[in-house]
Design goal:
By secondary structure, the chain is mainly α. It has a domain of about 130 residues. It is built from eight helices and no strands. Helix 3 packs antiparallel against helix 6. The model has no long low-confidence stretch (mean pLDDT about 95). Keywords: Membrane, Transmembrane, Transmembrane helix.
Protein backbone atom coordinates (compact mmCIF):
# COMPACT_ATOMS: atom_id res chain seq x y z
CA UNK A 1 0.00 0.00 0.00
CA UNK A 2 2.85 2.39 0.86
CA UNK A 3 4.42 1.82 -2.57
CA UNK A 4 1.06 2.34 -4.29
CA UNK A 5 0.51 5.65 -2.49
CA UNK A 6 4.04 6.79 -3.30
CA UNK A 7 3.69 5.92 -6.98
CA UNK A 8 0.21 7.44 -7.33
CA UNK A 9 0.29 10.25 -4.78
CA UNK A 10 -0.14 13.12 -7.25
CA UNK A 11 -3.20 11.60 -8.91
CA UNK A 12 -4.76 10.55 -5.59
CA UNK A 13 -4.19 13.99 -4.08
CA UNK A 14 -5.94 15.82 -6.90
CA UNK A 15 -8.76 13.26 -7.03
CA UNK A 16 -9.40 13.83 -3.31
CA UNK A 17 -9.28 17.60 -3.82
CA UNK A 18 -11.71 17.28 -6.73
CA UNK A 19 -14.18 15.22 -4.70
CA UNK A 20 -13.90 17.55 -1.71
CA UNK A 21 -14.40 20.72 -3.73
CA UNK A 22 -17.26 19.17 -5.72
CA UNK A 23 -18.96 18.33 -2.43
CA UNK A 24 -18.43 21.93 -1.29
CA UNK A 25 -19.88 23.22 -4.55
CA UNK A 26 -22.96 21.04 -4.11
CA UNK A 27 -23.54 22.12 -0.50
CA UNK A 28 -23.17 25.84 -1.08
CA UNK A 29 -24.70 25.81 -4.56
CA UNK A 30 -27.76 24.07 -3.13
CA UNK A 31 -28.11 26.73 -0.42
CA UNK A 32 -27.55 29.57 -2.89
CA UNK A 33 -30.07 28.22 -5.39
CA UNK A 34 -32.74 27.78 -2.73
CA UNK A 35 -32.08 31.33 -1.52
CA UNK A 36 -32.63 32.57 -5.08
CA UNK A 37 -35.85 30.54 -5.41
CA UNK A 38 -37.24 31.95 -2.17
CA UNK A 39 -36.31 35.48 -3.26
CA UNK A 40 -38.28 34.87 -6.47
CA UNK A 41 -41.34 33.86 -4.45
CA UNK A 42 -40.98 30.12 -5.11
CA UNK A 43 -40.33 27.26 -2.68
CA UNK A 44 -37.06 25.55 -1.80
CA UNK A 45 -36.21 22.25 -3.54
CA UNK A 46 -34.68 19.02 -2.26
CA UNK A 47 -31.03 18.13 -2.83
CA UNK A 48 -32.00 15.36 -5.27
CA UNK A 49 -33.84 17.92 -7.40
CA UNK A 50 -30.92 20.32 -7.22
CA UNK A 51 -28.50 17.74 -8.64
CA UNK A 52 -30.51 17.60 -11.90
CA UNK A 53 -31.27 21.32 -11.98
CA UNK A 54 -29.92 23.67 -14.60
CA UNK A 55 -28.16 25.67 -11.88
CA UNK A 56 -25.97 22.71 -10.84
CA UNK A 57 -25.37 21.31 -14.33
CA UNK A 58 -24.46 24.69 -15.80
CA UNK A 59 -22.13 25.74 -12.98
CA UNK A 60 -20.34 22.39 -13.01
CA UNK A 61 -19.77 21.89 -16.70
CA UNK A 62 -18.92 25.46 -17.63
CA UNK A 63 -15.82 25.02 -15.44
CA UNK A 64 -14.97 21.56 -16.74
CA UNK A 65 -15.36 22.85 -20.29
CA UNK A 66 -12.77 25.59 -19.82
CA UNK A 67 -10.30 23.22 -18.16
CA UNK A 68 -10.44 20.66 -20.96
CA UNK A 69 -10.22 23.39 -23.61
CA UNK A 70 -7.12 24.82 -21.94
CA UNK A 71 -5.45 21.42 -21.60
CA UNK A 72 -6.24 20.27 -25.13
CA UNK A 73 -5.01 23.50 -26.73
CA UNK A 74 -1.88 23.50 -24.55
CA UNK A 75 -1.05 19.94 -25.64
CA UNK A 76 -1.56 20.84 -29.32
CA UNK A 77 0.22 24.21 -29.28
CA UNK A 78 3.30 22.82 -27.52
CA UNK A 79 3.83 20.54 -30.53
CA UNK A 80 4.91 23.45 -32.75
CA UNK A 81 5.03 26.63 -30.61
CA UNK A 82 8.06 27.35 -28.40
CA UNK A 83 8.81 29.68 -25.50
CA UNK A 84 12.54 30.14 -25.05
CA UNK A 85 13.53 29.62 -21.43
CA UNK A 86 10.22 28.14 -20.25
CA UNK A 87 10.07 24.81 -18.45
CA UNK A 88 6.74 24.24 -20.22
CA UNK A 89 8.20 24.37 -23.73
CA UNK A 90 10.31 22.20 -25.98
CA UNK A 91 13.76 23.56 -26.76
CA UNK A 92 13.73 25.19 -30.24
CA UNK A 93 17.46 24.54 -30.64
CA UNK A 94 17.54 20.75 -30.29
CA UNK A 95 15.60 17.59 -31.07
CA UNK A 96 13.28 16.37 -28.32
CA UNK A 97 12.51 12.82 -27.16
CA UNK A 98 8.78 13.40 -27.61
CA UNK A 99 9.30 13.98 -31.35
CA UNK A 100 10.92 10.64 -32.13
CA UNK A 101 8.93 7.93 -33.86
CA UNK A 102 7.71 5.09 -31.59
CA UNK A 103 9.58 1.80 -31.70
CA UNK A 104 7.72 -1.51 -31.17
CA UNK A 105 10.97 -3.09 -29.96
CA UNK A 106 11.29 -0.73 -27.01
CA UNK A 107 11.03 -2.49 -23.66
CA UNK A 108 7.54 -2.26 -22.11
CA UNK A 109 6.19 -0.28 -25.06
CA UNK A 110 2.37 0.14 -24.84
CA UNK A 111 0.41 -2.45 -26.82
CA UNK A 112 -0.81 0.03 -29.50
CA UNK A 113 2.86 0.66 -30.38
CA UNK A 114 3.46 -3.07 -30.81
CA UNK A 115 0.21 -3.47 -32.76
CA UNK A 116 1.06 -0.76 -35.29
CA UNK A 117 -1.14 0.34 -38.21
CA UNK A 118 -4.16 2.55 -37.65
CA UNK A 119 -4.25 1.68 -33.95
CA UNK A 120 -0.81 3.22 -33.53
CA UNK A 121 -1.80 6.27 -35.59
CA UNK A 122 -4.75 6.90 -33.29
CA UNK A 123 -2.67 6.24 -30.18
CA UNK A 124 -0.05 8.80 -31.31
CA UNK A 125 -2.74 11.47 -30.96
CA UNK A 126 -4.86 9.83 -28.24
CA UNK A 127 -4.20 12.44 -25.54
CA UNK A 128 -5.37 15.30 -27.75
CA UNK A 129 -8.34 13.31 -29.05
CA UNK A 130 -9.61 12.43 -25.57
CA UNK A 131 -9.11 15.97 -24.23
CA UNK A 132 -11.07 17.46 -27.13
CA UNK A 133 -13.81 14.86 -26.65
CA UNK A 134 -14.00 15.77 -22.96
CA UNK A 135 -14.18 19.46 -23.92
CA UNK A 136 -16.96 18.77 -26.43
CA UNK A 137 -18.97 16.70 -23.94
CA UNK A 138 -18.56 19.38 -21.26
CA UNK A 139 -19.51 22.14 -23.73
CA UNK A 140 -22.72 20.30 -24.63
CA UNK A 141 -23.52 19.63 -20.96
CA UNK A 142 -22.83 23.29 -20.11
CA UNK A 143 -25.16 24.42 -22.90
CA UNK A 144 -27.87 22.02 -21.73
CA UNK A 145 -27.55 23.11 -18.10
CA UNK A 146 -27.42 26.81 -18.94
CA UNK A 147 -30.51 26.54 -21.16
CA UNK A 148 -32.33 24.55 -18.47
CA UNK A 149 -31.44 27.11 -15.80
CA UNK A 150 -32.52 29.97 -18.06
CA UNK A 151 -35.88 28.32 -18.70
CA UNK A 152 -36.34 27.53 -15.02
CA UNK A 153 -35.88 31.22 -14.27
CA UNK A 154 -38.19 32.26 -17.10
CA UNK A 155 -40.86 29.84 -15.87
CA UNK A 156 -40.74 31.40 -12.40
CA UNK A 157 -41.43 34.78 -14.00
CA UNK A 158 -44.19 33.43 -16.22
CA UNK A 159 -42.27 34.31 -19.38
CA UNK A 160 -41.95 32.29 -22.64
CA UNK A 161 -39.25 29.63 -22.64
CA UNK A 162 -36.19 29.71 -24.89
CA UNK A 163 -35.50 27.08 -27.55
CA UNK A 164 -32.08 25.53 -28.13
CA UNK A 165 -31.79 27.29 -31.48
CA UNK A 166 -32.41 30.68 -29.90
CA UNK A 167 -30.24 30.11 -26.85
CA UNK A 168 -27.10 29.10 -28.75
CA UNK A 169 -26.69 32.78 -29.62
CA UNK A 170 -27.71 34.09 -26.19
CA UNK A 171 -25.27 36.47 -24.54
CA UNK A 172 -25.61 34.70 -21.17
CA UNK A 173 -24.30 31.39 -22.50
CA UNK A 174 -21.31 32.91 -24.24
CA UNK A 175 -20.57 35.19 -21.28
CA UNK A 176 -20.40 32.08 -19.08
CA UNK A 177 -18.02 30.44 -21.54
CA UNK A 178 -15.68 33.35 -22.21
CA UNK A 179 -15.33 34.35 -18.55
CA UNK A 180 -13.96 30.86 -17.85
CA UNK A 181 -11.90 30.50 -21.02
CA UNK A 182 -9.99 33.75 -20.47
CA UNK A 183 -8.99 32.75 -16.94
CA UNK A 184 -7.61 29.41 -18.18
CA UNK A 185 -5.58 31.04 -20.96
CA UNK A 186 -4.24 33.59 -18.46
CA UNK A 187 -3.11 30.82 -16.10
CA UNK A 188 -1.22 29.05 -18.92
CA UNK A 189 0.42 32.31 -19.99
CA UNK A 190 1.50 32.99 -16.40
CA UNK A 191 3.08 29.57 -15.79
CA UNK A 192 4.80 29.58 -19.21
CA UNK A 193 6.37 33.00 -18.63
CA UNK A 194 7.06 32.80 -14.87
CA UNK A 195 8.83 29.46 -15.27
CA UNK A 196 11.48 31.26 -17.33
CA UNK A 197 12.67 33.35 -14.38
CA UNK A 198 11.28 31.72 -11.22
CA UNK A 199 12.03 28.31 -9.69
CA UNK A 200 10.56 25.77 -7.31
CA UNK A 201 13.08 23.23 -6.13
CA UNK A 202 11.77 19.67 -6.35
CA UNK A 203 8.92 20.40 -8.78
CA UNK A 204 8.73 18.74 -12.20
CA UNK A 205 7.13 21.95 -13.47
CA UNK A 206 10.27 23.98 -12.73
CA UNK A 207 13.78 24.07 -14.12
CA UNK A 208 16.65 23.32 -11.73
CA UNK A 209 17.26 26.29 -9.44
CA UNK A 210 20.72 26.90 -10.90
CA UNK A 211 19.59 26.65 -14.54
CA UNK A 212 20.10 29.75 -16.73
CA UNK A 213 16.96 31.73 -17.54
CA UNK A 214 17.17 30.90 -21.24
CA UNK A 215 17.59 27.16 -20.69
CA UNK A 216 14.41 25.64 -22.10
CA UNK A 217 12.53 22.62 -20.79
CA UNK A 218 12.53 20.97 -17.39
Amino acid sequence: MKTFLRNNGLGICFLVLFIGTLFGQIVFGFKEHNKELIDEGSTAIQLSSYLVSGHFIQSTFENWESEFLQMSLFVVFTIFLMQKGSSESKDPDKDEEVDRQPSPTRKDAPWPVKKGGWILEVYKHSLTIVLFLLFTASFIAHFYGSLKDENEQLALKGMPLESSADYIGDSRFWYESFQNWQSEFLSVFVIVVLSIYLRQIGSSQSKPVDAPHMETGE
